Amino acid sequence: MGITAPERDHTDGNEAREVLARARSTVDPALRAAVDSLPGMMRRIAAYHFGWQEADGTPSAAGSGKAIRPALVFAATQAAGGIPGSAVRAAAAVELVHNFTLLHDDVIDRDRTRRHRPTAWRVFGTTEAILGGDAMHALALRVLADDDHPAAAAAIRRLADCVVELCAGQQADCAFEQRTDVTLAECLVMAEGKTGALLGCACAIGALYAGAGEGVADVMDAFGREIGLAFQLIDDLIGIWGDPAVTGKPVGADLAARKKSLPVVYALGSGTPAAAELAALYALDRPLGPAELQAAASAVERAGGRSWAQGESCERMAAAIAHLAEAIPDPSAADDLLALAELVTRRSH
User: Fold this and answer.
1) Model confidence pLDDT, tens digit, residues 224-252
2) Rounded Cα distance, 171 and 190, in Å
3) Which of 72, 177, 268, 340 has the smallest number of CB atoms closer than 10 Å to its CB?
């Protein structure tokens, strides 16, 4: 009997939050030990970015993020019949890769805040933040290279391939900002590379650490990619309509940056009067004012971008569940994975 959405109801999010808390407490010691091995300035940048320290090196309680990707590694290991504790280094490596991309993304996008604090490039400088990200990327591979688990070599290959895909997705995302002819199909491919690839990789690595074969790992990768696309769709909605008190970013930040996010691209291609309004606002060669940002958000909604993204995220969730049912025949073994999947697709927007 396969897994279906009604069988597992985690809508209150409590189970997922417990899974995330366990993942954070399990992976943090390995993360801290790895970061402590970096040279002085690289260590300071990483510790600040993770929320462990202030810029001057004093302790901080800012927080390290949700640990979704390490949680997926542990949950996938457990679902595939393994021991989650055997995958601590793998989970740390995945989290290091995720955070190296965040450091670089903040520089590329010129984002000024992350987790309600100034971004690392604003505190330490652009060059230092880029180099700090490079060091974290190398550190992730070293953490896996030093792991004596039989799956470590396969995990390194998957993680390296994933980083290439992440870079391609980020490059496409930036290139789209200079184009007026971006298609929805292109945008979905970009989102899969930029967001889905690492979530898929986390699930695949977890399966490998449980002793599963490459075939099962591939199906788990497909599960994670669908979750990643659902995550990106919701994230794009938050980038337009999210509460700054929750997101830590200004209202309409993605619209202000003229991002070709998924709801925006759908709206621009809708052929509606609202699409023409949105295109005219995006074509302005100056920063958008508050009223114009509000008008742009309204245009996206009237052109159907908001409702399409909400519906598409549900479709991606259904596809993810189908992949999971193929890889994990026992529904109860997949509880943690489903709880995480439902949490990321039910974030407030």
Assistant:
1) 999 999 999 999 999 999 888 777 677 78
2) 9
3) 177
Tell me the pTM. Answer: 0.91
Q: Do 267 and 279 contact (CB within 8 A), yes or no?
A: no
pLDDT top residue among 2 and 217: 217
SS (H, E, C) the chain: CCCCHHHCCCCCCHHHHHHHHHHHHHHHHHHHHHHHCCCHHHHHHHHHHCCCECCCCCECCCCCCCCHHHHHHHHHHHHCCCCHHHHHHHHHHHHHHHHHHHHHHHHHHCCCEECCEECHHHHHCHHHHHHHHHHHHHHHHHHHHCCCCCCHHHHHHHHHHHHHHHHHHHHHHHHHCCCCCCCHHHHHHHHHHHHHHHHHHHHHHHHHHCCCCHHHHHHHHHHHHHHHHHHHHHHHHHHHHCCHHHHCCCCCHHHHCCCCCHHHHHHHCCCCHHHHHHHHHHCCCCCCCHHHHHHHHHHHHHCCHHHHHHHHHHHHHHHHHHHHHHHCCCHHHHHHHHHHHHHHCCCCC
Tell me the pLDDT tens digit for each residue of 276-285.
Answer: 999 999 999 9
Task: Find out whether 327 and 216 touch, Cβ atoms under 8 Å.
Answer: yes
Which amino acid is located at 135 in the chain?
A: A
**Backbone φ, ψ for residue 281 (5° rounding):** -65, -40
Q: Among 318, 324, 282, which Cα is nearest to 299's? A: 282
Instruction: Take residue 157 and report the two structure tokens written for it.
Output: 């290959």
